[in-house]
Amino acid sequence: MDGAATSNLIWTTLALADFAIKVAALIILPRDRKPTAAMAWLLTIFLIPFLGIFLFFVFGGTKLPKKRMQQQAETTALITERGSALELTPLRDQWAPWFSLVERQNRLLGGIPMVGGNTATLIGDYEGSIAAMTEAIAGAKTFVHVEFFIVSWDATTTAFFAAMEAAVARGVTVRVLADHLSSRKMAHAKETFAELTRIGVAWAYMLPVRPFRGDRQRPDLRNHRKIVVVDGRVGFMGSQNLIDRSYNSKKNISRGLKWQELVSRVEGPAVTGMNAVFLSDWLAETGEDLWAENVPADQVAFDTSAAALECQVIPSGPGFPQENNLRMFLAMIYGAQERVIITSPYFVPDEAMVYAITSACQRGLDVQLFVSEIGDQGPVWHAQRSYYDVLLKAGVRIFLYPAPYILHAKHLSIDDEFAVIGSSNMDIRSFNLNFEVVLLVRGETFVRQMRAVEEGYRSAGRQLTSAEWDAEPGKSRFLDGLARLTSALE
Q1: CB burial class (10 A; 0-12, 13-18, 19+) of residue 138?
Q2: Closest CA to 460 of 359, 372, 353
Q3: What is the assigned CATH class of domain 324-487?
Q4: Domain spans, the chain
Q5: d(C-alpha 230, C-alpha 163), whole Å
Q6: For the whole model, what pTM was predicted?
Q7: Domain 66-102+111-308 coded CATH 3.30.565.10
Q8: Quick check: 29 and 44 in contact, CB under 8 A?
Q9: Which of 75, 169, 249, 402 has its CA at a distance of 20 to 30 angstroms from the CA of residue 460?
């Protein structure tokens, strides 16, 4: 065969392969995928077919292996069975009908019921929250369960590690879970996990990406949860990782960036739900079943004062067939009667969330959004900005938290009665790709604490006006739109 014929054969083969890829994409991609995500993948594959199909095979699947999905279903069923026998919500008859349905939906999807008799305190000081967790560990008598997206042994967390070491020395069982890729890429990662081993902590990676050992799930499916449970009676949940507030990053340090967080310290029956989430993750990563060690909710101190809170722990992530956190957020926003206040460092909502927020404005509610003035992740920051125009036009008041701080707190308050705090951002990644956990709270005393935090954000930052936004240069708008398009590649 001469050179011309060979060349023609190669180009014909490539053209046929290109055509086959595009036809297959049109058939396969729309199945079980949101239209926005399907369109984004189709556009990618049509523009760069060979690279696009490679990226799809690596990043296109949003679910875990079948065995892991089955295990999560069994765990949820177990939690549901144990929780169904408990009736720890004596104020249930005071719930608004819409809220009763939200609680039922959360319980159906995540398995964990709402329980009363809790107390909770918000901690907005970065070092102060680590100090509070350290103090709780120092008083541990039976077990300590620690789960973070990022774990790092550094100057800020030294006392926390020392408290774990002291707990182990006095016979307390200490277990630690850390997300594999996120913790391993931090500075001094090798020293961090060597230190955990040295002090006698039982630890494991979450969602390890080790293809040669059989761990082949999509590499950007991550466990983003942040939980600390001590003796099954004291728990911590929020946005903060176990690391210095600069994340020990040279880039962050050079820019002077500091993370601003919010953590809730909880006592009462709700801690059992927090521990159940940890135990399910421990079982998934180690194969070790520790359910016998869980402290039942009806054996935890129950606060009967007027200030007691009703709380529900809501886990979500690719292990669940539904988007538990997104469905809860939507239901809460649609149930709001007076105001909706959202705080999210990475605000990249899907279409349903945009409709819920703008509909709240159209119903006459006071809707506010707190985000950072600057971003630490360029593509996400630009994608977030692409929503400002429609939000401002709808009547959302957007407040920008000032540099050099990254407002990393993640919470929502509804009217004067309801609040949500946890690890979940209001973005597509948290809805579909990350394991998350949030705490839904019913109680005016807790919401008053959150209102004080929100007022602090408002006083420290500034409101973004429509006139200011309209003056944004075209180049920035182009980057915002491009980032928004790629954010749908889930």
Answers
A1: middle
A2: 372
A3: alpha beta
A4: 3-59, 66-102+111-308, 324-487
A5: 12
A6: 0.89
A7: no
A8: no
A9: 249
